[in-house]
Write a structure and sequence with these properties.
This protein is mainly beta. 9% of the residues lie in helices and 54% in strands. It contains 3 helices and 23 strands. The radius of gyration is 24 Å and the shape is globular.
Length: 367
């Protein structure tokens, strides 16, 4: 009996010790960059190459974020001709803990869409923005040690929506699944990938019985030392006639590594030739964030030594809540850290003014 127990213990130990750690899949060096080509997919999942755009991700730093040590990845999207000149507008957050890769779900780029839904007056008792803000959290999306094809629930939440005086009980579910490992070919070569499927589903609840209304499928390929190297979301036909909403199709999206983006490195001694105010990062943030800006003053083709620069923060009502910069500065690129620990959650604006140059951007504080 003792020999059997010892054998079982050794077997368990070997299985656990041989399970791949999530950290093996994320780049080890800060500064790592990903370059992607993103191609919309039509209703038949045929790529619309004429509408393709590009995305650049940059492993910027490692810092605590909402309770976990996060690998912070700055991200931006744009046209091939302009993406290198654009600032990073958003951030992605990952945490590696044993055999699990956590991802922070944030409303990010869909914030404007959610605000538009609320403004459309579809429902009188429900805020799409507030609902999805309530879902923002860390989720153990990538379970590298899970069994193949075994689905796991990441989130499940019930709510009620009133449309045209009729109340509908809905269930939102976010789930994940590790699929069979797959080798894929990319512009950077061949990668042996762990493959995952994540799904968002919306159900209409008729008593305890769920009827599926919407289901999205997101297939993700993760390569050792490179993290996500491919991501495909098929188009989705949505029939919400039960809610009195006409059927529609959500276009798909194919994200693949590309070598079309050629990154040029400018000399560090070259003076900036334009003003710019970058998006704060991380965003959303709690409670600290960083704001980067570039200033230059040219008079008669010569760079002026300095000029008064102000960088202020305002709440959604236009009240000034903080002054981050208020001094004369020479041309250059600067970064300031802002701690909003004393402020409540919400949307804020930060405004840079240097001479006649004025630019304002929005940021989201979530506590």
């Amino acid at each position: 009996m003792k020999k059997i127990v010892t054998l079982l213990f050794l077997t368990f130990f070997l299985v656990v010790s041989n399970a791949q750690q999530a950290s093996e899949f994320f780049p080890s060096q800060i500064g790592f960059e990903w370059k992607f080509k993103q191609t919309p997919l039509d209703s038949g999942n045929i790529p619309n190459t004429s509408a393709a755009f590009y995305r650049m991700d940059h492993f910027a730093s490692v810092a605590n974020y909402n309770g976990k040590l996060a690998n912070i990845v700055q991200t931006k999207t744009g046209l091939l001709s302009t993406i290198q000149l654009q600032p990073y507008l958003d951030s992605l957050f990952y945490n590696m803990d044993g055999t699990i890769g956590y991802e922070y779900f944030s409303i990010g780029n869909i914030e404007e869409f959610l605000i538009a839904l609320d403004s459309a007056g579809i429902t009188t008792n429900f805020s799409f923005l507030d609902f999805f803000i309530s879902l923002q959290d860390w989720y153990d999306v990538y379970r590298f040690g899970s069994s193949v094809n075994s689905e796991y629930t990441l989130l499940q939440k019930d709510t009620a929506i009133t449309i045209s005086s009729v109340t509908y009980n809905l269930r939102f579910k976010y789930s994940g699944k590790r699929l069979q490992d797959q080798t894929i070919q990319t512009v950077l070569g061949s990668f042996e990938c762990k493959k995952f499927l994540t799904q968002w589903k919306v159900y209409y609840m008729l008593g305890p019985i769920p009827f599926e209304l919407i289901s999205t499928n997101d297939s993700i390929w993760i390569a050792p030392g490179n993290w996500i190297v491919q991501d495909i979301i098929p188009s989705n036909y949505v029939d919400l006639s039960i809610l009195g909403i006409p059927a529609f199709t959500i276009p798909g999206l194919e994200t693949k590594l590309t070598d079309e983006i050629v990154v040029t490195v400018a000399s560090e001694e070259t003076l900036p030739n334009t003003f710019s105010l970058e998006q704060n990062y991380p965003n959303p943030f709690n409670p600290s964030t960083k704001i980067r800006y570039t200033i230059v003053f040219v008079i008669a083709n010569e760079v002026k030594q300095s000029q008064l620069v102000t960088l202020k923060v305002f709440d959604i009502l236009g009240n000034e809540v903080a002054t981050l910069v208020n001094e004369a500065k020479p041309a250059g690129t600067y970064e300031v850290e802002y701690n909003a620990a004393s402020l409540p959650s919400g949307i804020y604006f930060y405004k840079l003014q240097a001479g006649s140059y004025i630019e304002t951007k929005k940021m989201l504080l979530l506590k």
